[in-house]
Design goal:
- With 204 residues, this protein is an alpha+beta fold.
- Helix content is 18%, strand content 24%.
- The chain has two domains: 1-19 and 176-196, no CATH class; 20-175, no CATH class.
- The strands form three sheets. Strands 4, 6, 7, 8 and 10 form a five-stranded antiparallel sheet that branches. A four-stranded antiparallel sheet has the order 1-11-5-9, with no helix packed on it. It has a two-stranded parallel ribbon with strand order 2-3.
- α1 (2-17) runs antiparallel to α2 (179-198).
- The longest helix has 20 residues, at 179-198.
- It starts with a helix and ends in a 6-residue tail after the last helix.
- The chain crosses the membrane at residues 176-195.
- Keywords: Membrane, Signal, Transmembrane, Transmembrane helix.
- This is PEP-CTERM protein-sorting domain-containing protein.
- Residues 1-23 form the signal peptide.
Length: 204
């Protein structure tokens, strides 16, 4: 019986201390966007990242990390970082590029990020549901099934990524019990061991 308890302590401690998840890296086309565009001929639609395909769902915590850099003007080197936006959505529907709220079923999450108007036409381009991605810990909101990401910019046609390193890493963050929790579980099992040792043997 003591061996069983000791083995239980080892297994539980191991499980509680090793709750980690695999990270997924996603390449991002710097010309892609979910924001409104105007007279922006080379701009393309942002891809929709299906959360379920990554084993993620409502209520999960994820760390979103912007990777690499990009150029936001023809001829410039890749030096721009920290300009990645994200927005969760219930569906993968992205409306036409002239529409302000292109992510039809956008769901608010995180700290709202303000975006400026389009370069041509000075059209309003700020939506209420997007957030900035740097090294961001965020909880997936209720109803979210997809994530759209894009560089924050007013004109996308002249964007480039010469070294191909612009992207995002997404990692599920699984809450690990505090050390006190592990200690209490272990203490409880040790008490059971001590109690088991003191029990008188039953005579047949």
């Amino acid at each position: 019986m003591i061996k069983i308890y000791t083995k239980s302590i080892f297994i539980i401690s191991l499980l509680l201390a090793s709750m980690t998840a695999m990270a997924t890296t996603i390449s991002i086309d710097p010309k892609s966007t979910f924001l409104r565009t105007n007279n922006d001929p080379a701009a393309v639609n942002s891809i929709s990242i299906e959360l379920a395909s990554l084993g993620l769902g409502t209520g999960d915590y994820v760390r979103l990390e912007q990777l690499g850099d990009l150029s936001q003007r023809t001829g410039d080197p890749d030096i721009v970082t920290g300009h990645l936006l994200g927005v969760f959505s219930n569906t993968n529907i992205l409306l036409g590029s002239s529409t302000l709220n292109r992510v039809q079923d956008a769901i608010d999450a995180g700290n709202d990020e303000s975006t400026g108007p389009t370069f041509f036409g000075n059209l309003p381009n700020d939506i209420a549901e997007d957030f900035l991605i740097t090294n961001t810990l965020i909880q997936i909101p209720a109803g979210a099934a997809y994530l759209f990401v894009a560089a924050s910019d007013s004109y996308y046609s002249d964007n480039s990524d010469l070294d191909g390193d612009y992207g995002m890493r997404i990692t599920q963050v699984i809450p690990v019990p505090l050390p006190d929790t592990i200690w209490l579980i272990s203490l409880g099992l040790l008490v059971l061991i001590r109690f088991d040792k003191r029990k008188p043997e039953t005579k047949s």
